Amino acid sequence: MTLSPLTEAHWPEVRAIYEAGIATGNATFTTEAPSWDEWHRGHLTHSRLVALDEATGQVLGWAALSPVSGRCVYGGVAEVSVYVAAEARGQGLGRALLLALITASEAQGMWTLQAGIFPENEPSVRLHEAAGFRLVGRRERIGRMGSRWRDTLLLERRSAVVGADAETANAATDGRYL
């Protein structure tokens, strides 16, 4: 597996993985994948990754960031999306994508990453917790899917490097933090 920047050329395969996630009913409130232009406008232009099969070049998963607000005070805060093709799950691909996304986001000055995850999506919750995200709380009945109200768990990861004091930043570069 190779990690590369996500580009428009990857979109057909990225979109197919996204649609498969949508079809599970436990990945997103979104009901259909958007066009490339719409997706591109809704995500930060940096910190977009795909995981490619080294032998075939096939997209096996993707990760990207969306801004949480247009207000400048939240310029270093983003929402995480990580999707892995069904046939590639359980092989550490999600972890590799998420850790690389964290590194890329910090290189861009991002200090907080958030994830809104359905409680039923236990693998995603475990993935994020293993990457240093902490549970902030449960947002009850935050949105509807059809006629059903859904809860989400809000997880966040504060950078140990961006916006950190010198002692914390040194510990992060020594490997004492993710």
UniProtKB/TrEMBL annotation:
Keyword Acyltransferase in annotation: yes
Record Pfam families: Acetyltransf_1
PROSITE patterns in alphabetical order: GNAT (PS51186)
Molecular-function GO terms, alphabetical: acyltransferase activity, transferring groups other than amino-acyl groups
Domain N-acetyltransferase: 1-156
Protein name per Swiss-Prot or TrEMBL: N-acetyltransferase family protein
Keyword line: Acyltransferase, Transferase
Superkingdom classification of source: Bacteria
The keyword Transferase is assigned to this record: yes
